[in-house]
TrEMBL record:
Any GO MF annotation of the entry: acyltransferase activity, transferring groups other than amino-acyl groups
Domain of life: Bacteria
Transferase is among the record's keywords: yes
InterPro entries the record matches: Acyl_CoA_acyltransferase, GNAT_dom
Taxon lineage: Bacteria, Bacillati, Cyanobacteriota, Cyanophyceae, Nostocales
Keyword Transferase included in the entry's annotation: yes
Name of this chain's protein: GNAT family N-acetyltransferase
PROSITE patterns: GNAT
Length: 170
C-alpha cells in the first residue's frame, strides 16, 4: 500500500538518490536542492510516494510566473521521479494525480511541465503554445506543456513562462 505525503527533512538524502537513479545523473536531484533553498519552494507540494516508510518516488511543484500584460502566478512540475525498480507500476501517475489535487487545494490555477507529451497528456496537459505561452528555456515546443487547474485560467493570455535561472542547469 502506497502513502503519499509532503517530504520530510529526513527523507532528502533518499529523495536525492531516487531522482539520481531515475534520471541516471545528478542534475535533476541538484535542481530539487536548489529549489528547496529559494522562495519558490512550497514544502506542501514536494511530495513523496512511500511504501513501508521507504521513498519510492518524488514530485515537486514550485512557484514560477507567466510574464504577460501582468505577472500571473503558476507552478512548474519538475522533476517527477520513481526509483527504477518500481517504474511502470503506476507510482509516477499516482504522484502526478495526488500532486495536481494538492495544487488545486492550494488554489493555484496553472501548472507547466517540460516532459514527454504522451505521458503528460493523460493528465490533461496540452501544448503550451496553443495558449500563446512560450518558455524562457530552450526546449522543443511539443515538450512544453500546460494544464489549467481552473477553467479558462489561460484565456486571452499570451506570455512567457519565466523559469528561474537554476532550471537552465538541467
Amino acid at each position: 500500500m502506497l502513502d503519499f505525503a509532503p517530504e520530510t527533512h529526513n527523507q532528502r538524502a533518499k529523495i536525492y538518490q531516487v531522482i539520481t537513479d531515475a534520471f541516471g545523473r545528478t542534475q535533476e536531484a541538484s535542481l530539487v536542492d536548489k529549489i528547496r533553498n529559494c522562495p519558490n519552494f512550497i514544502p506542501a507540494l514536494s511530495l513523496v510516494a512511500l511504501e513501508n516508510g521507504d521513498v519510492l518516488g518524488h514530485i515537486l511543484f514550485s512557484r514560477i510566473f507567466i510574464e504577460a500584460s501582468e505577472q500571473i502566478p503558476a507552478l512548474a512540475l519538475a522533476p517527477l521521479a520513481v526509483t527504477p525498480q518500481r517504474q511502470r507500476q503506476g507510482i509516477g501517475s499516482q504522484l502526478v494525480q495526488v500532486g495536481l489535487s494538492k495544487c488545486r487545494e492550494s488554489d493555484y490555477s496553472v501548472v507547466v511541465v517540460v516532459g514527454e507529451p504522451r505521458y503528460y497528456r493523460r493528465f490533461g496537459f496540452q501544448k503550451a503554445s496553443q495558449f500563446g505561452l512560450h518558455s524562457s528555456l530552450p526546449i522543443p515546443d511539443e515538450a512544453f506543456m500546460v494544464l489549467e487547474l481552473k477553467p479558462s485560467a489561460l484565456m486571452n493570455i499570451n506570455g512567457n513562462v519565466c523559469y528561474p535561472d537554476y532550471f537552465n542547469e538541467v
